[in-house]
Amino acid sequence: MKAAWYEKQGPAREVLKVGEMPDPTAATGEVRIRIAASGINPGDIKKRQNAFGYGMPYPRVIPHSDGAGHVDQVGEGVGPEWEGRSVWCYGAQSYRPFGTAAEFTVLPVEQVVPLPPNVSPEQGACLGIPGITAHRAVHVAGPVTGRTVLVQGAAGSVGLCAVRLARRAGAHVIGTVMSPSEEGIASQAGTHEVVRNDHELIARLKALAPGGVDHIVEVAFGANVQTDIDLLKMGGSIATYATNVATPTLPFWLMVFKNIGVFFLGSDDFPKEAKVAAGQDLNAALEAGWPGFEIAERIPLAEIVRAHELVEHPARRGRIVVTV
Question: Which residues in the chain land under pLDDT 50?
Fold first, then answer.
């Protein structure tokens, strides 16, 4: 098969290679997917850069955890109904060496989700990490029906999914954005109100939710934690999946006096049942008409270096998808 890989970490142009590798074979409980589209997430870039200092987990890594295509081989113990099915997948390069930047990938069948017929493989390839992270961020503290949920960074990939999923779950959803150009994007995703993240943010949010916010989905924990504590009700909660600084300063006593719950979310290690539920709810949102993500560019596998560089330095808004 044709595949992209790296055998050392570093800049995309220095370490990514494209060539031929043996076709993989589905083992017991696995399926093999013929990849049509491979999604790139910030975590894929960080792994290749060694941003977290973990080093090379395997001698050779095919990048990207998310992808879409169709099942062309099933392993022992997997039902025949999967063969030939259009699917999207997640976690292909989580605790595994070979992800979706290749003609084929193999992974456990529980990490594979049927692709709704109205959804393109490119959209399917964008769903895994942001969609499952968003679902967990919305639901980790309990049901949100009838509650006020604030989504910080509502125009980002996780934020857009969180807005849509919280709205479908019956929450009143407020989204924050950084610029006027993002307001329409967040509104289209389903926010009830959109607020600019500027010096008037707290005043505007307190006017919209005078009783306080029940739950916050947080993209920049270090930058926003003080604001979040100020806005939350007694017993409120924060679900954070990213931070602008690695060692944030916490307003400990304010959090204690308000009995604030904080959930730190690493998508590789969510409970299996949470991932399955996320896949079902994301498909339901797509089938109900959610358009998914704006795709900025589709780039062939042979040009994966350019794809990674565009994720690092975007030329325009939207997701970058590698086509195979």
Answer: none
Instruction: For the chain, give every residue range classified as CATH 3.90.180.10.
Output: 2-126+293-323
136-164 confidence digits (pLDDT tens): 999 999 999 999 999 999 999 999 999 99
Identify whether the C-beta of residue 297 lies closer than 8 Å to the C-beta of residue 284.
Answer: no
Give Rg (Cα) of the chain: 20
**CATH number listed for the domain at residues 130-268:** 3.40.50.720
Instruction: Please state at what angle helix 272-287 crosses helix 128-139, rounded to 10 degrees.
Output: 110
Q: What is 2-126+293-323's CATH topology?
A: Quinone Oxidoreductase; Chain A, domain 1 (3.90.180)
The answer to whether 165 and 286 have CB atoms below 8 angstroms apart is no
What one-character DSSP code corresponds to residue 180?
G
Residue pair 133/241 in contact (Cβ under 8 Å)? The answer is yes
Buried b (16+ CB within 10 A) or exposed e, 50-78: eeeeeeeeeeebbbbbbbbbbbebbbeeb
User: Tell me: the pLDDT tens digits for 23-66?
Assistant: 999 999 999 999 999 999 999 999 999 998 999 999 999 999 99
